[in-house]
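Researcher: Go.
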Amino acid sequence: MRAPNRNHRVVAAACGVFVLSMLGAAYAAVPLYRMFCQVTGFGGTTQVATSAPTRTAERTIRVRFDANVAPGLGWEFHPVQREMTVKVGETALAFYRAKNASPRDQWGSATYNVTPEVTGAYFAKIHCFCFEKQRLKAGEEMDMPVQFFVDPSLVDDKTLDSVQTITLSYTFFAAEPPARVAGQPAAPKL
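Model: Structure:
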């Protein structure tokens, strides 16, 4: 009689370990996936750079700019310029304009990607409004810069020889105010 009771405990313990492992994997999935996409450019996720490349190529790429606002955020959002042509390796600066068309202050946070998705590994941003939550007061309008370059190693990837255009797309979503940092006043309630 002791053997079946012991077997039940072993099976119960194994199930408990399995459930805890799955909870841990589910909790870690989003940050691990985000890190994977940022490193590889998977899904059109762009790279983050701290400095511009030291060389440029003669090849040019047309960069188109796209803007979207998710439901629930009362903002108008559009690129100031619809497209620009840049040399591969050249640092460029583009602007998006956002306006809070709602009667109350709102916070927003932007997500981004590029298409074709395979170019995500070569499209790098040095400075971008998408790295921080943005606050716009009721009726406020703001230009938001993005400084970027197309990595010169793109010219070495022969599978991308036919790529002539890259589209940089942003979508703004409603966001909560950032958490209070010790020593700073609390963010105003919106």
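Model: Helices lie at 2-40.
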